[in-house]
Design a protein that fits this description.
seven-stranded parallel beta sheet; 2 domains; homodimer; alpha/beta; 241 residues; five-stranded mixed beta sheet; Ribosomal Protein L25, Chain P; Alpha/beta knot
């Protein structure tokens, strides 16, 4: 198999002989930044059809064309794990999305909690971070970044079949192990810096499908907690097993 | 116990009635940024004597004075775990140091590998990040950030009693479990982006005290890998048990 250095997400159907159109940003990256020329080979994926070897057939300032040669790896979807987190600062929010994609979250849901002030997020920018992380980590799947939603509203319409692992700093020093009936879809909920409100904590503790978990004796920042919680989950129930 | 909002690292001996001198930076933070006045109470720690409740006795533009009232928590040192990593980009390096302190590393060692170009690091700036992380995470210990050292030189003088968990992206999809005789001191070694060289990998694999571990099927960035590896270790052997 050809050893390629470049992986590119192209949201178009892929198959042998299929041609792919590059947009202006992709053309700039391939020709301007990476100095690729006609005949160059790279890996492409669309989040559904696995990874394909593709060859550059046309190059211009405003676009270009690739042709798919052969599939390099089959599509591999992550486990059915959502990551819910409360966005606060821009840089940390970007990092959480990047890390969620690398760690294998299937869906990323920014939530407003009682102690979160974020009124809006740049969903398109966060989605671009998820794409970039997928390109970098070698995965063939790109998690969707959902729009900002209030946690209370999300819980109102929650499917009880999806269990929730919620990381509560009030538990610092408690158990980090997952217990109970573990099969089926899951979500990890990372609290905001400043923690959950008493009302939120009481509601979460009352949900039969929600499990409070401790992430050690120190208080972790939200982005650290996201990676640590996904590690615990992936090792116990996910695709690290 | 008084509920205090501010935690400050002050590198001076602490004890009941002990007075602490604030430097210009600490004075600016307490009086300028946090708007504290005489009589205000905060938590202080020096990395050795636990956490103390302290009261502001003098405030000026260039300094100030605190007095220790009573110990709030006893000193708690992390397990004897070192984190070795190859610094590349500034922001990621800062994050790794921050996360290592939050996750409970006892010592942080930046290393040069065959595929690392970093010639020098700002050790003082990285140490300041470790202090800030300790202030934020509620810990009473501040890990030392060592000077940059070549990995090969570090391994030449390695104490064989300290086992190494090395995270090798070439193992993607292998086991993330730690196996073997697990007691005693440990170090986690995170490879550089671009991976270890063949020579490094061969040497590490030949060391009887080094254990290769996989961190799942996707390739993680160095800062993500550092948190994930410390989670695996803390859950299995450290203070998350």
């Amino acid at each position: 198999m050809d050893d390629v250095k470049i992986r590119l997400y192209v949201d178009q159907p892929m198959g042998a002989g299929q041609s792919l159109t590059l947009d202006k940003g992709q053309a700039h990256y391939l020709f301007g930044v990476m100095r690729q020329g006609l005949g160059a080979r790279l890996a492409v994926f669309n989040g559904r059809d696995g990874e394909w070897l593709a060859e550059l057939r046309a190059a211009g300032k405003r676009g270009g064309e690739l042709v798919c040669l052969e599939q390099r790896t089959a599509q591999r979807d992550p486990p059915d794990l959502w990551l819910l987190f409360a966005p606060i600062k821009k840089a940390r929010t970007d990092f959480i999305v990047e890390k969620a994609a690398e760690m294998g979250a299937a869906r990323i849901l920014p939530v407003q909690t009682d102690f979160t002030n974020a009124e809006r997020i740049r969903q398109d920018r966060l989605q671009a971070h998820a794409v970039e992380a997928a390109e970098q980590c070698g995965g063939t799947y790109v998690p969707e970044v959902a729009g900002l939603c209030r946690l209370s509203r999300l819980l109102d319409g929650w499917d009880a079949a999806r269990q929730i692992m919620f990381c509560d700093e009030a538990l610092a020093g408690g158990s980090s192990a997952l217990a109970g009936s573990l099969a089926g879809p899951w979500a990890i909920l990372i609290g905001p810096e400043g923690g959950f409100s008493q009302a939120e904590r009481a509601r979460l503790r009352g949900l039969p499908f929600a499990h409070a978990v401790s992430l050690g004796p120190r208080i972790l920042r939200a982005d650290t907690a996201a990676v640590a919680a996904m590690t615990v989950w992936q090792q116990a129930l996910g695709d690290w097993q």
